[in-house]
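Contributing: when you submit paired examples, paste them exactly as shown. First protein:
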Amino acid sequence: MVDCPRLTEHQAHILGFVRKINLHNFQVATSETVRDINSRIMLNLVREHEPVSRADLMRYSGMQRSTVSAITGQLLADRWLKVGAVGHLPRGRKPTFLHLNTERFGVVGVDVQPTTTTLAVTGMDGQFLAQEFMPTAKNPVEFVSRLTSRIGDMMLAHPRHAYEGVGICLPGRIDASWQQLIFAPTLGWSGFDLKTPLERNLGVPVELENAANACALVESWSRRHTDGVRNLVVVTVSDDIGVGMILDGQLVRGSNGMAGEFGHVSLMAGGPRCRCGNTGCWEALASNAAAVRYYCESYAHKGNVASRSKMSEPTFGEILRLADRNDVPAREALNRMVYYLAEGMAMLVTGLAPDLLLVAGEVTRAWAQVGPMVTEAVKRRSSFTRAGTRIWPTDPDTKPLLRGAMALVLQKHFDMPVIG
């Protein structure tokens, strides 16, 4: 048995964060734990800098040549890494460059939304290899049956050396201990076990997570926007509103997985009824569904009641397109939604003071219009906190929720191992 050396600040940065040790339930680190930590550091360095030579890895990690050689040799033997091109130097040994072996395993990511579920296959590098869509069945048992079949077909159509697992993000909260969906008003499911039947029929591990949490994880893991950020809040806006929080470098789930349900905090006494049963919830005021409701109300208010009765309810995407063409009811509906969206975000900035607040969802396609409104309103209502929070949109074309689902599986090999 050996003591695990304290990670340097640089090593902790590479792994993303350091978990606090639970002194009431812990295991003493072994030499295998030390090797595991160093191997994960090496994998992360290759992921960030590939193609990369062993000499570069020595410089990035601060490890000795023999240590880097031993770790990379084992990672090559275990097929985590592969050798690429040979470099050219004026003299001395020519370096060989290392890459992640993206063929080692595949991952299936699933983004479940109330009407449509998106599935994708990725390699170890997180790059999409295939993407499909399926209707989200109202009955959860029927949904699991169809999802199992579609995932199985995708695995057969895109064979890999092995499949490491399936990551699923959902518009609801997951019991962290039992991995069961316990709260999902937009789906109408509760207390349902998706994990067990999927694992039994697919033969691979299945990871479930709230969509906003998954989005926060992948943003922190990929560091596209978040390099050096330890306090991050992600707001996902669709027919619901979700909040994922990484505070002091750690994902906040709460004692039962329900932490972050700010979408169901009431912002308006006597406001519209929410699907959770309460009234005036942030979600009922600032979600995509709220914008559609505002549009229909505005359309009727302007004397179009007769024609409104014949008109099918528009999608939020259609409202965005109408607003872009200066359709007055659409612009009014979008502005009203954004007003309440900013109200809730000001609450988050005041209460949590994150370094960065990311917004994910279709509304970011209109960020040129809505972004200044959000930023100004949040600043006006929370400036006394001096939080200095930056507010940025994510790119919807990068599929942040789907990537978050995949990160649930991939992070097991790149994050800090659980010691105790």
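Second protein:
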Amino acid sequence: MKKQEPAARPKSKRSLRPLGPQVRRGTSPLAVTATVQDKTEFQQIVHELQVHQEELEAQNEELRETQQLLEASRDRYADLYDFAPIGYTTLDEKGHIREINLTGATILGRERSRLLGTLFSVAVAKDDLSAFHSHLRRCQQASGPETTELTLAVHGHNPVPVQLYSVPIPDLIGQTTMYRTAITDITARKQAEKVLRLAHDQLEDRVRERTAELAGAVANLRKEISERERAEQALRELSARLLRTQDEERRRIARELHDSTGQKLAALAMNLSLVGKSAETFKAPVRKALAESLTLLDQASREIRTLSYLLHPPLLDERGLAAAVRWFADGFTQRSGVAVTLEVPPDLQRLPEEIEMALFRIVQEGLTNTHRHSGSSTATIRLVVDQNHVRLEVQDAGKGLPRSPAKGHMDALGVGITGMRERVKLLGGQMEMESGSHGTTIRVTVPFAGAAS
């Protein structure tokens, strides 16, 4: 630290002259007094000179210490500059090298002493010369840093990719004639970029290959889906034909039972009645057998008539769904003892034949399942028709339908549930089923535009 200088002392304007050690005899008292004063002033001046000399020596010591600090700082700066991990150089406006550190000289592949004053462009690859000169022009025009990447082609060395980072150095009048430039070897980065590009290209190739494979797989899948859709469509058409065939066969059998078998049984009853008129002439066993035959014939006639109606109720064709459902519900209550509540609009108009047949079969299957599986003593049938849909609901209050222990769904009902779903699906509708300890509910919705009157 620099010492604080003492306050300046006024310098003596008198010139120094030697004084004798003694005062001559005969000198006047006034002269003696003057001589004593001159000696006192001389001693004071000498003292001031000694103090000033000490101050100068102290200042010289501070200067020596400062010089040593400056030299140490300069040495440290030189070490930092020369041995920095990147190259540093100072270029003039023409691109001549004015200063360069050891790292920069190593990157350029020449001794530092031979580089000073030479053009930096000598070390630049031919293909990048225009980029280097453009970098210099931008440095002249800009007030901030400029960055350029190019390749150095030094004789006897492999090409070195570098990044130039230049900052203009304005002079005292604000003009720029020199540029400090950092030279960074970006070989490792370029190699990493090359590896990354290679990996990216390989990945793109794999993506293209995988995309082509996926496209092929998608095409095959679409083809398979199309084939399956055709097979599902064929199955639906087959199922529809089977259901129509089944209904037609039921209608035919019902007609045969009613028109043929029923008529034969009626003729047989008439014949037995004629025979019965002569029963008094028969023996007792014969009369008993005749009476039992008439009873069995009557029972068989009623069962065949009921079976004929169950296979295809004539009311479904003659009066429509509402009448057929009422007839079936009444007969079902008589046969099973299950009380059935009907909620059907009294003015329900006729529906298309396929809808009436499907809904009647669902009512049949639903009530049959109620009797066989639920143990419920009551059931409810609701039928609602609006402008867009026909809705049917069959509900009981039993223990629910049995489920498969392995799969957890209602497989024990066989083809009944499947047949109901298939009928609804063929009509473009939906079917839902809920079953549990509270009972079972079947809900069916079938689209039908203009169903309401």
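If you have annotations for the second protein, write them as plain sentences, like these:
DSSP finds ten helices and ten strands in the chain.
The longest strand covers residues 160-170.
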